[in-house]
Specification:
The protein is of the alpha/beta class and about 200 residues long. It contains 6 helices and 8 strands. It has an 8-stranded mixed sheet, sandwiched between helices. Strand 4, helix 4 and strand 5 form a beta-alpha-beta unit. Helix 1 packs parallel to helix 6 and helix 5 packs across helix 6. Pathway: Purine metabolism; IMP biosynthesis via de novo pathway; N(2)-formyl-N(1)-(5-phospho-D-ribosyl)glycinamide from N(1)-(5-phospho-D-ribosyl)glycinamide (10-formyl THF route): step 1/1. Catalyzes the transfer of a formyl group from 10-formyltetrahydrofolate to 5-phospho-ribosyl-glycinamide (GAR), producing 5-phospho-ribosyl-N-formylglycinamide (FGAR) and tetrahydrofolate. This is Phosphoribosylglycinamide formyltransferase.
C-alpha cells in the first residue's frame, strides 16, 4: 500500500475527496497533508480526517525555490511518502524536484489540457467561446501542466456562465475524477479515465 502525500495551498476540497477515497481495498493511503501556507483551510480538514499535517511556508524562502523544495523533500522523506498528489498546490516546482518524483506525482488542473495551462482557466475558456470545459489529471513533469494526461472530465458551457459558475459546477467533477485516476494509477493502470458531467 503506497504512502501518499497531498500538497495543498487552500481549502483542500480535492484533498478531502482523495483522502476519503483511500480506504478499504484502495492501493494507497493519505499519510500526510503539506501546505505551503499556514493559513490554508485544508489543514483543519486534514486534522478532522486524522491525517498528519505539515507546513513548509514558501514565504520563509524568498527568491529561493530550491531551498523551499529541499525542506519539502525532507518533510516528505521523514514521512516515508512514496507518491505525491498535488491538490490545489499553487507553487511551480523546479525541474530538479519534479525529476526526483518522476512517475510518482500527479496534479489536477481546471481545464481540458492541453488548453489553458496556468491560471484563469475558466475565464479563458469563456473568452474563447468554448462549448465545453473541464478538468484534467496529469503526471507532473518539468513543464507546467504538460505531463501525460491520465483523465479528463467534461461539461457543457451554458449560456450566462461566468468564471465563478464554471468553477462551482466543475468542482464536483474534480472530486470524482481525481480519486478515480489516483486509484487506477496506484494499481498500475495508466488507461485514461474519462467522465462527462
Amino acid at each position: 500500500m503506497k504512502r501518499v502525500g497531498i500538497l495543498i495551498s487552500g481549502g483542500g476540497s480535492n484533498m478531502v475527496a482523495l483522502a476519503k477515497d483511500m480506504v478499504g481495498d484502495h492501493p494507497g493511503r493519505a499519510k500526510l497533508v503539506i501546505a505551503n501556507d499556514p493559513g490554508a483551510g485544508g489543514l483543519l480538514k486534514a486534522n478532522a480526517l486524522r491525517i498528519p499535517t505539515a507546513v513548509v511556508d514558501h514565504r520563509d524562502f524568498p527568491k529561493d525555490r530550491e531551498g523551499f523544495e529541499a525542506e519539502l523533500q525532507v518533510v516528505l522523506e521523514e514521512a516515508g511518502i512514496e507518491m505525491i498528489a498535488l491538490a490545489g498546490f499553487m507553487r511551480i516546482l523546479t525541474p530538479g524536484f519534479t525529476a526526483k518524483w518522476a512517475g510518482r506525482m500527479l496534479n489536477i488542473h481546471p481545464s481540458l489540457l492541453p488548453k489553458y495551462k496556468g491560471l484563469q482557466t475558466h475565464a479563458r475558456a469563456l473568452e474563447a467561446g468554448d462549448a465545453q470545459h473541464g478538468c484534467s489529471v496529469h503526471e507532473v513533469t518539468a513543464d507546467l501542466d504538460d505531463g501525460p494526461i491520465l483523465g479528463q472530465a467534461r461539461m457543457d458551457v451554458r449560456a450566462g456562465d461566468t468564471p465563478q459558475s464554471l468553477a462551482e459546477r466543475l468542482l464536483p467533477l474534480e472530486h470524482q475524477l481525481y480519486p478515480a485516476v489516483l486509484r487506477r494509477y496506484l494499481a498500475g493502470d495508466r488507461t485514461p479515465v474519462m467522465l462527462e458531467g
